[in-house]
């Protein structure tokens, strides 16, 4: 097993280190003449032109990738997208039919809840497309089309490289569908953003790993951590919290930053650690200002604020206890970078607590029962 880990202390550490490669491999072969063209979807344009809505279905981490995908798909392809946990979708008599494309996301391709949702969608006449990391798995076999993520085998129970590959595949899908439907405007710029991602991921790993691991070491006795995000930072907050629960057994919750005043702010007491994913002010000065004002609100109540913000964003400095930097990237590409420090944080905290990061208690890598 030590050899399989290639010198890394855990599969999770190895898989985090492989993230730049996972993203690069998922993009490879899917850009033609400055546009995203997914060869597996050749001749399947009617999957995207003959529909009026998309439902993304998945469980756990894959569902958070789906939420990022919703924002991107709606923006680029101008089509309504809902994200539904597979086990809820399947049991609530949803309104679906031939005008619906159901996109499932699964690393293993064997998750029973997701498989049952796909089968159910097909029985109801919907078209189905799967985003999957495992060649020839059951979910892609049960779907009309498949777009593989090429993250390579993921062994650690906590998903890391598959998650960034899933978001990458959803961005590719959004750009492909936007082009096919004729709604895409900033295609070439987005392709440039995609191609720049692997190097930026490598940069985050290099520049922040030590800093984040040190933070986690200081926080080994923490009993609860909150995560806030807005726009595509919201699913990243959810994912940061899930990682921490899964491998560090620490109570963690992710919130949409705008929800704070609707309840969660009552949780803030002196010393409460809160991670805040701050979107770039270059994408939307308004969204950025709203998140900075959320930071001020929690700081005023004594929260210990750890900010994930783009390089050069000075507005966060007066209110942050710690600042983790990520490189500049387009709005929909930023979450792929922002999640890395959260994955490293969870891994380092679990390690500081002496836990087995690859095999957390009570969990299985793929949940093949309903
Ligand atoms: C991720 O860290 C989890 N272990 C879990 O939420 C996982 O993403 C979920 O069970 C879905 O698995 P799948 O992608 O193989 O379908």
What do you see in this structure?
This protein has a 5-stranded parallel sheet, sandwiched between helices. The chain has a 5-stranded parallel sheet with strand order 9-8-10-11-12, sandwiched between helices. Strands 1-2 form a two-stranded antiparallel ribbon. It starts with 10 loop residues before the first helix and ends in an 18-residue tail after the last helix. Helices cover 44% and strands 16% of the residues. The longest helix is centred in the middle third of the chain and has 32 residues, at 187-218. The protein is of the alpha/beta class and 370 residues long. The chain has 12 helices and 12 strands. The protein binds 2-deoxy-2-amino glucitol-6-phosphate (AGP). 2-deoxy-2-amino glucitol-6-phosphate binds next to helix 4. Keywords: Aminotransferase, Cytoplasm, Glutamine amidotransferase, Repeat, Transferase. Its main location: cytoplasm. Its EC number is 2.6.1.16.
List SSEs in N-to-C order: HHEEHEHEHEHEHEHHEHEEHEEH
What structural category arises from helix and sheet content? alpha/beta
The ligands found in this model are: 2-deoxy-2-amino glucitol-6-phosphate
Rounded mean pLDDT is 96
Q: Biggest sheet, strands in spatial order?
A: 4-3-5-6-7
Unreliable spans are none
Number of E-type strands: 12
Distance from first to last alpha carbon: 30 Å
The major sheet is characterized as: 5 strands, parallel
Question: Nearest-angstrom radius of gyration?
Answer: 20 Å
Give the strand content: 15-25%
Number of helices: 12
Percent helix range: 40-55%
Give the overall form. Answer: globular
């Amino acid at each position: 097993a030590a050899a399989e880990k290639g010198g890394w202390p855990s599969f999770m550490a190895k898989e985090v280190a492989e993230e730049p490669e996972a993203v690069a491999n998922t993009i490879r072969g899917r850009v033609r003449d400055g546009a995203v063209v997914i060869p597996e979807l050749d001749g399947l344009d009617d999957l995207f032109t003959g529909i009026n809505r998309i439902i993304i279905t998945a469980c756990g981490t894959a569902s958070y990738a789906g939420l990022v995908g919703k924002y991107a798909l709606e923006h680029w392809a101008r089509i309504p997208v809902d994200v539904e946990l597979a086990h809820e979708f399947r049991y609530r008599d949803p309104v679906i039919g031939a005008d619906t494309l159901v996109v499932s996301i699964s690393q293993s391709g064997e998750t029973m809840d997701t498989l049952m949702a796909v089968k159910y969608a097909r029985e109801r006449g919907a078209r189905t497309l799967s985003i999957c990391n495992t060649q020839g798995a059951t979910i892609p076999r049960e779907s009309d089309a498949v777009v593989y993520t090429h993250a390579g085998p993921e062994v650690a129970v906590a998903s890391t490289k598959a998650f960034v590959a899933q978001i990458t595949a959803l961005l590719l899908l959004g750009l492909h569908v936007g082009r096919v439907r004729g709604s895409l405007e900033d295609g070439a710029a987005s392709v440039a953003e995609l191609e720049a991602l692997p190097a930026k991921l490598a940069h985050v790993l290099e520049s922040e790993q030590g800093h984040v691991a040190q933070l986690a070491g200081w926080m080994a006795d923490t009993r609860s951590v909150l995560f806030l995000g807005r726009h595509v930072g919201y699913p990243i907050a959810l994912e940061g919290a899930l990682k921490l629960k899964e491998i560090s057994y620490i109570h963690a919750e992710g919130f949409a930053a705008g929800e704070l005043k609707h309840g969660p702010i009552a949780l803030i007491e002196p010393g409460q650690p809160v991670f805040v994913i701050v979107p770039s002010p270059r994408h939307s000065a308004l969204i950025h200002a709203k998140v900075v004002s959320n930071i001020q609100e929690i700081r005023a109540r004594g929260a210990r604020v750890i900010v994930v913000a783009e390089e050069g964003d000075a507005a966060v400095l007066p209110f942050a206890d710690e600042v983790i930097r990520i490189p500049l990237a387009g709005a929909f590409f930023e979450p792929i970078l922002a999640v890395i420090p959260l994955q490293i944080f969870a891994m380092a905290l679990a390690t500081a607590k002496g836990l087995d990061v690859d095999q957390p208690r009570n969990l299985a890598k793929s949940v093949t029962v309903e």
